[in-house]
Amino acid sequence: MTKSKNILVFGAAGFVGTYLIDELLERNCAVFATDMHEDSLKYYKDKGVDYTRVDITKKNDFERLKRERYDAVIHLAACQPANIEKGRYDPREYIEVNVVGTLNILDFCRENKADKIIYATSHRNTQALWGGGKSIREQDGRGMKYDGEYAMFSISESAAQDCVLHYQAQYGLRGIILRLPPVYGFGPHTEIFKEGKQVKTGFQIFIERAMASQPLEIWGDADLGRDIIYIKDVVSAFILATDSRTATGLYNISSGKSLTLREQARAIADSFWGSETSPQIVERPEKPNDIEPFLYDISKANKELGWSPKYSFQDMLTDYKKEMKKQRYEHLVEKRQGMFQKKQGEIYGRL
To answer: What angle, 0 to 180 degrees and rounded to 10, lies between the N-to-C axes of helices 261-272 and 313-326?
Structure first.
């Protein structure tokens, strides 16, 4: 059977990459996967996917890749704070991975006459625009914060976005930038590094407490809301971007809705409560939390990509439980746990 498209994915061993490649295979694409990690080699070999280990900061590593004419190159690789433990912070690492690595990928695209590059980027460089209940549009620009653990991440990813747009203007390489808020789904949402310290995510704490029939505590303002997105809605945006012949520039890929802490806790309690007793939720407004509200306008993605999210938060939890039961992506959880057991290791790969 003839393959429909040639797709090269950088950051294939990560959360988004794993889900995305499964969908590309379902659509009969010829997928070429690459990451700097070797722990997904067997996973992709079993699927018949060509998997090559490449460190995107090293130009010579790109010689290992097949010189194909790619219909799309998908760039998911990134250095980010959630993967960096205390004492390992180095601003140069962000520049080397997120900027130099992106330039190396762009050069590879240009040299191999790729039709387009699709770059996944965080929403963190709009942090100064958050709050107030206003939906952030693509044309609203950036709102950088130059302090805190996400500063160099935002600086370097912003520079990488500009590099994509430069190669489009200078060389005609069509660039599509998908801006993502927190992406939820079964896989890595167990523990992260926060300011260099290992912590469980609030999402994981809620699920574990609900499964144990223990009260879910909401700290701070329970009406604070965030705009999150389910992994399978993200994947559908990438699929439409690979298909599009006209899309270009930056697109917000989010739910376009504000999910409050109270709504999140109630939905998780209803979905995961582990006994016949009624779920219990306790609000503790006197205890501080570090939640910052944000909301995105997704009308451009709807108009130009024909994309809109299909999963409500409740739908997401229902599907999350199905994926957890099937254990199809259990290796992502094991990989995440293994990362915290290593004193040293490779630190990038999109969550």
So the answer is: 40
Tell me the H-state helices in the chain: 15-26, 41-46, 91-94, 101-111, 151-171, 202-211, 231-243, 261-272, 299-305, 313-326, 330-341
Q: Cα separation of 197 and 180, whole Å?
A: 24
Residue 176 corresponds to which amino acid? I
Summarised one tens digit per residue, pLDDT across range 112-130 is 999 999 999 999 999 999 9
Mean pLDDT within 127-144: 93
Sketch the domain layout of the chain as residue ranges: 6-184+227-257+293-312+330-341
Helices (H), 47-100: 91-94
* The dihedral sign for the CA sequence 60, 50, 94, 171: positive
C-alpha dist (Å) from residue 89 to 81, 100, 152, 163, 336: 8, 18, 10, 24, 19
Closest listed residue to residue 235, CA positions, set 187, 270, 293, 183: 183
Q: Is 342 helix (H, G, I), strand (E, B) or coil?
A: coil
pLDDT of 5 higher than 60? yes
Distance of CA 316 to the CA centre of its chain: 16
The domain covering 6-184+227-257+293-312+330-341 belongs, at the CATH homologous superfamily level, to NAD(P)-binding Rossmann-like Domain (3.40.50.720)
Six-digit token string for 18: 């794993």
Q: Residue 165: exposed, middle, or buried by beta-carbon count in 10 A (0-12, 13-18, 19+)? A: middle
pLDDT exceeds cutoff 80 at 162? yes
Rounded to the nearest angstrom, the gap between the alpha carbon of residue 224 and the centroid of all alpha carbons in its chain is 22
Query: Whose CA is closest to 73, among 82, 62, 83, 59?
Result: 62
Other beta carbons within 10 angstroms of residue 104's beta carbon come to 20
255-268 pLDDT, tens digit each: 999 999 999 999 99
